[in-house]
Write a structure and sequence with these properties.
Chain C: GO terms for molecular function: transmembrane transporter activity. Chain C: Belongs to the TRAP transporter large permease family. Chain C: The complex comprises the extracytoplasmic solute receptor protein and the two transmembrane proteins. The complex is a heterotrimer of chains A (309), B (164) and C (429). Chain A has 309 residues and is an alpha/beta fold. In chain A, 46% of the residues lie in helices and 16% in strands. Chain A is built from eleven helices and eleven strands. In chain A, the strands form two sheets. In chain A, strands 7-6-8-5-9-11 form a six-stranded mixed β-sheet, sandwiched between helices. In chain A, strands 2-1-3-10-4 form a five-stranded mixed β-sheet. Chain A is globular, with a radius of gyration of 19 Å. In chain B, β1 and β2 (129-131) form a beta hairpin. Chain B is mainly α and 164 residues long. Chain B is built from five helices and two strands. Helix content of chain B is 73%, strand content 4%. Chain B has a two-stranded antiparallel ribbon. The longest helix of chain B has 38 residues, at 3-40. Chain C has 429 residues and is an all-alpha fold. Chain C has one domain (56-262, 299-425). Chain C has 22 helices and no strands. In chain C, α9 (136-152) runs antiparallel to α19 (357-371), α9 (136-152) crosses α20 and α21 (392-415) packs across α22 (417-427). Chain C starts with a helix and ends with a helix. Classes of the chains: A alpha/beta (309), B mainly alpha (164), C mainly alpha (429). The complex binds sodium ion (NA) (2 copies). One sodium ion (NA) binds at residues 330-331, 371, 374, 377-378 of chain C.
């Protein structure tokens, strides 16, 4: 069976190379061609916000969902976007995978008509700026590029202003001083050449997360032979671990490279981290109020315990 | 001019006016944003989301029909303008009916989509909570009136036009 | 593949029978999707098609730059700038025509749309040249050719649409357009000088009068200030290109209010005209997205990319082939229609070949700009003809020497990417 797989990342992105593409190839090989994929990267098949709908409508069969794009249909899953939780892609991915196996996050996806195969996260967002930003006091009144409401709240919780600027315009905005700082996943920094315009990059902050879930339309998935289903999931688990580690390694490499270019890559001190976490607690509380219900409380607690070791 | 034409024009002009006000609104908002940012270091925070979610879709789709009425939708003029006989008549009708069918589909689907957003109280979290239904509703409105215009023109062109 | 060709033929048929291009692309794309994926998915594609293509902040540059142009033209600002240029170099042989080119550059730096620019030049520069016994064919041709500069010199609607369709930085595209625009203007001046020396189509104008020239020049000051404000806001980091367009609107409004050259009804007409152009453009963008979606699911893009990555042909050959196709399309189609039809295929191909997206954008823009001047559909020649009353045939004849220069400039841009990329690399490093 040939499945149409939608993806909003480009094929050169590490998430595609070490994650999506790798998984597709592994599944095609393991199932001896019983399942093959037609890959539609870079939002070719559907815009990033429309990927979930596209799977439900039969435009696609499988999609790598950027979960935060679907906060409306998947509110509980957006917990991963909160700042101050996981410290590496591997840690975050392990937590997410556990929560996708059973519990409210999985149920929410099933209710949306799709079955999660595996999920993984980007390394935590760091702050890039032209000066060192540590404790919340350093952030006061700065213009920070954020994407999405959770990050805007994160900026606000530290007394800064969250500003939405389209990705391609961020470079110029930073260079020309329109923005004082950017919250960004480090793996995406080279794609936008942001390392050319900033002088300071934090290494151990946790200014928000981002999760991907590979999701198959449920009625289609249930129609697949049991061994194929099992293979897809098993290889998915492997891929999740692999792509998380690959990203963490790549971040190490990037940081070393930037350091050699004269950029100050800095660790936040324990005091700074504690102060930041304290400020950003408001973001989690706001999230819980917005989502409401017992569910959000339980999800937040479980997520906290899974990411705190 | 018959009554239907009159009503249709009224609707088109009203939507067009709304679109024009949307554009003026965008210009004012962005300027206010820039000025306040420069002077008071306080951006108009709602500007970006208001523009992107509501004003742009509104000013880009509400006037669809009015622009068609004015002949503003780009078409090639390498072929003959009118063709003689029954074939010419078929071409003339099909040129209106096929797009009418297409835009009827667009209207139906996008209206259903907007309706769903209203029914589920869908919200885009941002500086404030934006109700998405209103953002989605302008497209079916603009497309729907265009369908009426296209269908109306199919029937009008078969009668002799006494106003010319 | 057979279905694909049949649908392309259907698309051509619709367009020949004068169905609006956007409607034809939407219809065929929708029908193609239904054949490819089934009716349910095809219908689903429609549900957010218009919202997705219009709900974009970057797109606000389009109505705002058009509004700015409309305001400047209806407020008599552009006509005054043309006179100022003419008062400085009108006295030499061919000087009025060169002044028209110079004024076109200034206008181009304020106006994003070439029809607006051509119309303004035709209304003001053409009569002046005629009064000084310029040949119809030269005067009308210069007006049409000068108008095309608006497309390359920033701000430019074509560049914005290219940026939106291909997700390329509009700020960088704008900077990249500056040198090619000035190069084109220089080329046009050379052609005029040549014609003025060889023929009697371009006699001398009024003798030079320093006082008169200086007095006329004060009309350039507000435009120059506006230009500095808009471009300065972009490169000074105060505003993104989209936001700068809003500054431009406000600036134009202030100028014409100060000059007392605007009425409420003229303001309304300007806003209405900007909306009209925007609706047309967004409809094209939306419907071409539906068509592009169909292309994606046919896997034609995919096969083409595989072909380009495995073919033995040098990448230059593929590029030249693409440029030639664009030139031929330019003979029959409007620039935006060409962009929306071709970019879904041409852009990924060019990227797969390793070309720079900014440079490719300028090359494409330059190519479709040439299309504005070629028969049978040469939009600028149409506008000039409508405004001046000079027959189309005469204008097209007069345009020929300029066209040769335009092609020469295009070849230069193709051979020396640094002409395009030097300035952006300087300003953005
Ligand atoms: Na321009
Ligand atoms: Na042409």
């Amino acid at each position: 069976e040939s499945l149409r797989l939608g993806d909003f990342q480009s094929t050169s992105h590490i998430v595609s190379v070490e994650g999506t593409t790798r998984w597709m190839t592994a599944v095609e090989e393991a199932t001896d061609g019983a399942v093959t994929f037609q890959h539609f990267p870079s939002q070719q098949a559907a815009k990033s916000k429309a990927q979930l709908d596209a799977v439900n409508n039969g435009i696609l069969d499988v999609a790598l969902l950027g979960v935060l794009y679907h906060a409306e249909a998947l509110p509980l899953n957006s917990v991963v976007g909160l700042p101050g939780f996981y410290g590496s892609a591997s840690q975050g991915t392990a937590a997410l995978q556990t929560m996708l196996k059973e519990g409210p996050l999985r149920d929410e996806l099933l209710a949306a008509g799709v079955t999660p195969i595996f999920g993984f996260v980007l390394p935590p967002y760091q702050v890039l700026a032209k000066k060192r930003l540590g404790a919340p006091a350093d952030w006061a009144a700065l213009d920070i590029r954020t994407s999405g409401s959770t990050q805007a709240m994160t900026a606000r919780s530290m007394g800064a202003v969250g500003i939405s600027i389209p990705g391609p315009e961020v470079y110029t905005a930073v260079e020309r001083g329109r923005l004082d700082a950017v919250l960004f996943p480090l793996a995406s920094v080279p794609g936008y050449k942001l390392n050319e315009v900033v002088s300071h990059i934090s290494t151990n902050g946790s200014f928000g997360g981002y999760s991907f879930v590979m999701a198959v339309r449920t009625d289609l998935f249930n129609g697949l032979p049991a061994d194929v289903q099992a293979k897809m999931i098993e290889l998915g688990d492997e891929t999740a671990t692999h792509v998380a580690k690959a990203q963490d390694d790549s971040v190490e490499g990037l940081l070393a490279e930037w350091k050699s270019q004269g950029i100050e890559t800095y660790d936040l001190s324990n005091d700074e981290l504690a102060a930041l976490r304290d400020s950003m607690k408001a973001v989690g509380e706001d999230w819980q109020t917005r989502i409401g219900g017992e569910g959000s409380h339980a999800v937040l607690n479980r997520y906290r315990s899974l990411t705190s070791n | 001019m018959n009554v239907i034409e009159k009503i249709l024009r009224k609707v088109e002009d009203t939507l067009h006016l709304a679109g024009c006000l949307g554009l003026v609104g965008v210009a004012v908002l962005i300027n206010a944003d820039i000025l306040l940012r420069l002077i008071a270091n306080r951006p108009v925070q709602i500007q970006f989301e208001l523009t992107e979610l509501y004003l742009m879709p509104a000013l880009a789709t509400l006037s669809l029909s009015r622009v068609f009425r004015d002949g503003g939708h780009l078409a090639l003029d390498i072929g003959p303008e009118t063709l003689p006989g029954i074939f010419g008549l078929v071409v003339e009708k099909a040129r209106l009916l096929l797009p009418a069918a297409f835009f009827a589909c667009v209207t139906y689907m996008s209206a259903k989509f907007a309706w769903g957003a209203f029914a589920h109280n869908e919200i885009e979290y941002g500086v404030i909570d934006w109700p998405l239904g209103w953002a989605y509703a302008v497209a079916p409105l603009g497309c729907g009136v265009l369908v009426l215009r296209l269908i109306h023109d199919v029937f009008r062109s078969s009668e002799p036009d006494l106003t010319r | 593949m057979l279905t694909f060709i049949a649908l392309l033929a259907l698309l051509a048929l619709f367009m020949v029978f004068r169905m609006p291009i956007a409607f034809a692309m939407g219809l065929v794309g929708f029908f193609g999707l239904a054949l490819q994926l089934g009716w349910r998915p095809a219908f689903a594609v429609l549900e957010r098609a218009f919202f997705d293509s219009s709900s974009s902040f970057i797109l606000v540059a389009i109505p705002l730059f058009i509004l700015m142009a409309e305001l400047l033209t209806s407020g008599d600002v552009t006509r005054r700038a043309i006179f100022a240029c003419q008062s400085w170099i009108g006295h030499v042989k061919g000087g009025l025509a060169m002044a028209t080119v110079a004024a076109s550059v200034i206008l181009a730096a304020l106006v994003g749309s070439s029809t607006a620019s051509t119309a303004a030049m035709a209304a003001s520069a053409y009569p002046e040249m005629r009064n000084h016994n310029y040949a119809d064919r030269l005067a009308a041709a210069v007006v049409s050719v000068g108008g095309t500069l608006a497309v390359v010199v920033p701000p430019s609607i074509v560049l914005v649409v290219y940026g939106v369709l291909t997700e390329t930085s509009i700020g960088k595209l704008f900077i990249a357009g500056i040198v090619p625009g000035l190069l084109t203007a220089t080329g046009l001046a050379v052609v005029i000088k040549f014609i003025a020396m060889r023929t009697d189509q371009a006699p001398k104008g009024d003798p030079f009068d320093l006082g008169k020239a200086a007095r006329a020049s004060r009309h350039i000051i507000p435009m120059a200030l506006l230009m500095v404000a808009v471009i300065g806001a972009i490169y000074g980091g105060i505003a993104s290109p989209s936001e700068a367009a809003a500054l431009g609107v406000m600036g134009s409004l202030l100028i014409i209010l100060a000059q007392r050259t605007i009425s409420f009804s003229a303001f309304n007409r300007s806003v209405s005209g900007a909306i009209r152009a925007t609706v047309m453009i967004v409809t094209i963008v939306t419907c071409s997205a539906i068509f592009a979606n169909y292309l994606v699911f046919t896997r034609i893009t995919h096969s083409l990319l595989e072909f380009t990555s495995t073919t033995e042909l040098p990448r230059e050959a593929i590029l030249i082939f693409m440029v030639l196709i664009l030139l031929v399309m330019g003979m029959f189609m409007d620039q935006l229609a060409i962009l929306s039809l071709s970019m879904p295929l041409a852009f990924p191909t060019a990227m797969a070949l390793g070309y720079d997206p900014i440079w490719f954008g300028i090359v494409v823009t330059k190519t479709v700009e040439i299309g504005l001047l070629t028969p049978p559909l040469g939009l600028n020649a149409y506008v000039a003809s409508a405004q001046t009353g000079v027959p189309l045939r005469t204008i097209f004849k007069g345009v020929v020497p300029f066209l040769l220069m335009e092609v020469l400039v295009l070849v230069l841009l193709l051979c020396f990417p640094q002409i395009t990329l030097w300035l952006p690399s300087l300003m953005l490093k």
